[in-house]
Model the fold of this input.
Amino acid sequence: MVARVHGREASRRLARPDLNAPVKVLFATCGDDKLPALVEAFSRIDPGTPLIVVSEFPPPAGTWVPFHVQRSFHDVLGQCREALAGKEIRFAGLMLDPGSPYWKLRLAAALLAPTRLVCFNETFHHFMLRPGDLPVLLRHLRWRAGNWVRFQTNPSGKLYTIAWRLTHPRSLERPLVYRAALAAGWGLSVAKRWTAPRAPAPSHHQPEPGISVVIPSRDGRELLARLLPGVMSQCPDEVIVVDNGSGDGSAEWLRGAFPAVRCDVHTKALAFAEAANRGIAIARYSHVCLLNNDMLVEPGFFRALREPFDSVPGLFCATAQIFFPEGKRREETGKAVMPARGASHPPREFPVRCELPVTGEGHSYVLYGSGGCSLYDARKLGALAGFAEAFRPAYVEDLDLGYRAWQQGWPTVFAPDARVTHHHRSTTARFFSDKDLAVMVERNYFRFLARSIASPALFARLWQDSVRRLNLACAGLRPAMESDEVHVAALRSALRVALEECSEPGRPTCQMSEDQILAAGSGDIAVYAGRGRREPGPPVLIASCYAPFPLSHGGAVRMYNLMRRSGVPQLLVYFTDELQTPPEEILDLCVEVVQVRRHGSHYRDSSMTPAVVREFASEAFRAALRLSVRKWRPAIAQLEFTQMGQYAVDCAPARTILVEHDITIDLYEQLARQQPGWEHERQLACWRDFEPRVWRQADCVVTMSEKDRAMVTGGRAVVLANGVDLDRYQPGTEEPARARLLFIGSFAHLPNVLALDHFLRDVWPGLAGLDPALHVIAGARPEYYLEYYRERVQPCLDVAGVTVDAFVADVRPAYRAATVVIAPLLASAGTNIKILEAMAMGRAIVSTPAGINGLDLQEGKDVVVTRTAAAMADAIRSLVLNPEERRRIEKQARATVEARYGWDSIARSQEELYSSFRAERA
Done:
């Protein structure tokens, strides 16, 4: 909660200069750090002329025209022309900063004002492109050339680096090996294109139900003495120790100490994959648990690993949660993932990592199971021919096996209740140095890419990423440094792997898209067991871009209240900024909850897909939906909010319902009328393309009002209106504070920010003398959204009498304290749940027509509706000064919502809709 929120540059309005006045335009082709000084320098030129600044970041002065770096040049030029239409450009300025990649802005400036262009260098000296400034231009070019020479002849310059390497031949090895490894990877990707996919051989082995434990061990007598008591106490069906060239008498000791253990003795040391495969080959039972000898299992270990095989269709592997001994850094957790490209992952880190599990998480999907503490389906293990023995002597073979299983549609899940303590590298550290182990991991990762990535394009990207990662890790280090030797050795191993695999490039068949595999194993999906009802019938899948609890906005209020009253099991899949334990209120309603971490970007490009749709476009969400549909087989999938319509095809064969909380075309048509401009017109065009398309893809569209239903074209549409919890929201008996106004509206929704800006700018001054107080409840992260919408609106919140709170869990005290609830919206689609809540609380409401959009309310009886700022100020003043009139409206408002807007009746209508779909399917 915040006492008051200040928008960035809140006091500076975005009003455009007089259309007929000459202006000067600064194209800010520099970084944010140099922007203030550049604006100041340009302002000194013709200081009386109004200033317009085209920049990526808000300028300290002048009218701001936002520049989006990912937009095409055509769009940038079009936006600038629209902003400058009808204006005479007296001067245009730009900075010739070679370190700033703003060539689109530079070119736009040259085209819009070629003869009035003022060019600044990094020291803020300037010249114009005209004959009189030719001497200055020549001095600038000479100065720029001198800077280039000085830079190139210093240690960070390329010429210096080339000369130094020619005099130190050993330093040439890394760049040569680096480029050779890139070229070899490219050659291998070409070879993959011409290679026929190979399918795994079917397995006809029919093992008995039970668990076989396989423990490879080399000179591990002491480790086995510590491990086996905990294993045997849990009574697995058989335990096999593969004695792997031991010289410590392990086999003889086992026969005496643990006669029930089967010992498979080999006189020579085998690689881990070979030893594991020997044990797998003689295992008799349906599930095989591989254990390292340096593990310690906790009670319930095998039971926790076995459970997900009964609930996850086609499961290949369940892997345990790994802990380290007390006092040691936890390098492994068992939750092994490959973060998505562009996600927060340091560029020099190995591409696969372990993440800490979230409290309450269970059976989340992971890329693979650790070969040291995982349970496998024996038949599927046989079909894949076990571990690939090319991964010698150890490491990455488990990643390779898990990935090959995913390619056949056989997932791996994380079982956090199966817990082990790992005494890390107790065996390998005795036979290999740290350098050997580091090179071994890198070499086997390249072998995994070469053998098991089916898509040539994906292989090329992953190979190049890894080669560049190694090069980046050692670039600039002295050749004698050990870390440099490790990375150069790893690059050499990549070259050797490419040459070895090029004769027979690996390209397995894929039953599942590799993009989906990497998304499922990215660590962006977390699964939680719910406590909701599981019978009768399959659950309804609800997919949402926001959590339905806490009730931080109208959409959450609707979802939660209808879910709470639903008579069918429910499965929830939703986006979240960070994976975290879902609220108890959600877990109590659902059979399972799936969170998907969102990696959104505020950069706007030239795509014709609406910006908010791109914000919620996620391969991980597609994977989560498809895996959830496969697991639970829902008959109905309900997609909450327009942007989620892009996932309708991923819910097949479930019938899909798209819930249109508001018709976005309608909203942007209103915004385009209220704030004409390039951005709103562009987004409107995008929505006119996208929204009707998803209407056609869904089996049914649910709207909030008859007005909205009439706008839906090309598909079935029904009205399930918004409502209010009549038991929770009850009128109070106490008298409200005098002249206290309340505005509730999440700043995540642009019309709410526009509404507040309009009220403070146009209505608030009309309340002078009333001594009003305005309480604003702005929802979660108001500062973030003020920054996000800064180019469209910047409400001035630093006003006496105005208090802004962020998310408030219980808004009822705020309603009770308010004399009048205001809804000064200029644009609105769908229906406003906050209006219904205020009516249920028995509060008088002053609204614009947009504020009660879609609601069947009587003006002057249920709510006071005004159409100008002055009328709104007069209406508020009248209700404050006339308590009897205010109480009449309050009483009528409560009676109206009781008659028509209770959630119970709306939930019954939703159940009827579900029943009609089930009947059609039957």
Summary: Confidence is low (pLDDT under 50) at residues 1-19, 476-483.
